[in-house]
Design brief:
Shape of chain A: globular
Order of helices and strands of chain A: EHEHHHHHHHH
Number of strands of chain A: 2
Largest sheet of chain B: 5 strands, mixed
Number of strands of chain B: 7
Oligomer: heterodimer
Strand content of chain A: under 5%
């Protein structure tokens, strides 16, 4: 691949300017990027950015790793009450979500306009094998699932960030996918939807409901599929 | 882009397995000094105004982001479940540094900020499939007299 001018940065996926709420650092990255426009020694310029993101730390370091102060008691994977367990988690996290909203200065826009409790209830029905849950939305089922899961996950991550400490992206990701009933609910729905007759729903279940790195733990049946299958 | 060594094994193998065909041509362009350039941002983070249509799973369309938008008016409907969104929700400038670009304009580092910026959903399609969309964006950017574009993958 030949790109005209390219700044490589060593930050976590989804964080191309390093860290949130770090304007000086972000400006440094942007300026380093735009300065490449002065280079005329192409056809390819690939520069490494010199520096790590502020306060980034390895989540394997027990002394500095972030841990969610609320401990969820993980039920067995096949526990049938994932819906109620998820709603219970949300009730316990709600105050921290409010802290996050206050700190942020308002709610971040949602992506689905769906009510969280409705998302949880319908995911439970999908996990129980209901192919077309009754839902108050004009979205096609695949879009409803994807955007609803996004909103649910975003809400959890917002609540986690309302708590003390500053978590890295990988710490937040591990917390959500390894410790919450919500993640197990999404995974249990994905396992069932992997055989859904709608090809878009099936593709979503196989590729975009649970991150690849957690499939072996949460949905080994899906993990057995080849990711290069078209 | 994170260091490959810091990715989970399955993610590293997935990325290394991707075919990256070289371009036939060498897309290299010169231009005026940075302090005279009009700069636009183009992101593949699947950003859009909350009132806009969400991106779908495989989506070759784009969304227009007005240059005077407030950063907290933007949301993200990228189809990939694999990358972090928590940072974006803390600060949109993490993936779309519109406030930083305005600051560089005020400091005189760049000439001006474009009137419009653009967003794509950067997954689910091959590079050649997005070419007509990108050609359309290039025409729009020229109309806005943009002569520098910062492409921001996630």
């Amino acid at each position: 691949m030949q790109l005209p001018r390219f700044l490589w940065v060593p930050f976590e996926l989804g964080r191309p300017f390093g860290a949130p709420n770090e304007p000086e650092f972000q400006r440094r990255v942007l300026r380093a990027t735009l300065e490449l426009l002065k280079r005329t020694d192409g056809p390819v310029v690939l520069e490494d950015f010199d520096g790590d993101a502020p306060e980034a730390h390895a989540d394997s370091d027990e002394d500095t790793a972030w841990a969610c102060p609320i401990t969820f008691h993980a039920p067995p994977e096949e526990q049938p009450e994932l819906v109620s367990a998820t709603l219970d988690e949300m009730a316990r996290l709600e105050p921290w979500y409010e802290v996050h909203v206050d700190a942020r200065g308002g709610n971040a826009p949602t992506v689905s306009d769906l009510a969280r409790r409705d998302i949880v209830a319908r995911l439970g029905e999908l996990a129980d094998g209901v192919q077309e849950p009754d839902r108050e939305s004009n979205l096609a089922l695949a879009d409803w699932i994807r955007l609803g899961c996004d909103d649910l996950r975003n809400w959890y991550l917002d609540a986690a960030q309302g708590q003390p400490g500053r978590a890295s992206a990988s710490e937040l990701r591990n917390w959500f996918w390894r410790q919450t009933a919500a993640a197990r609910l999404i995974a249990s729905a994905a396992r069932v939807l992997a055989d859904h007759p709608d090809p878009f729903v099936k593709m979503l279940a196989l590729r975009a409901m649970v991150p690849r790195e957690y499939l072996a733990e949460l949905a080994p049946e899906i993990g057995a599929h080849s990711w290069r299958e078209k | 882009m994170v260091r490959l060594a810091e990715l989970p094994d399955v993610e590293r193998e997935h990325l290394l397995g991707k075919a990256c065909e070289p371009f036939d041509s060498k897309p290299w362009a010169d231009g005026p000094p940075l302090a005279e350039r009009r700069v636009a941002l183009v992101t593949t983070a699947g950003l859009h105004r909350a009132s806009d249509r969400a991106f779908s799973m495989v989506d070759l369309s784009y969304r227009v982001i007005p240059g005077d938008i407030r950063a907290d008016e933007l949301t993200m409907t990228h189809s990939s479940v694999h990358f972090d969104r928590s940072g974006f929700r803390e600060d949109v400038n993490l993936v779309f540094p519109i406030d930083r670009l305005r600051e560089l304009e005020q400091e005189g580092v760049i000439g001006s900020v474009a009137e419009f910026h653009y967003s794509l959903m950067g997954a689910g399609w091959l590079p050649q499939q997005i070419e007509p969309t990108v050609a359309e964006l290039a025409r729009l950017l020229r109309t806005d007299e943009v002569d520098a574009v910062c492409l921001i993958p996630v």
